[in-house]
Amino acid sequence: MSLMPFVVAVEPDDLLALNEVVKAGKKAEREWLEETRKTYGVQFLRGKALSEARGMIRTEFRRLRERGKLAGTRDLVVAREVRAELKRRRMDGEYDPVPAEDAAVPGRRVGTGPQHYGRNGEEPTKLTGRMYVKLPGALGDQLVRACHWTSAPAVTALWEWQSRWGDGPEVIFREAQRSGAVTILDLWCAAMAPRPDADAILQKAQLQAQVVTTGDIIRAAVKRAIR
Question: I need a surface site. Which of 32, 154, 164, 209 has the fewest CB within 10 A?
Answer without folding.
Answer: 164
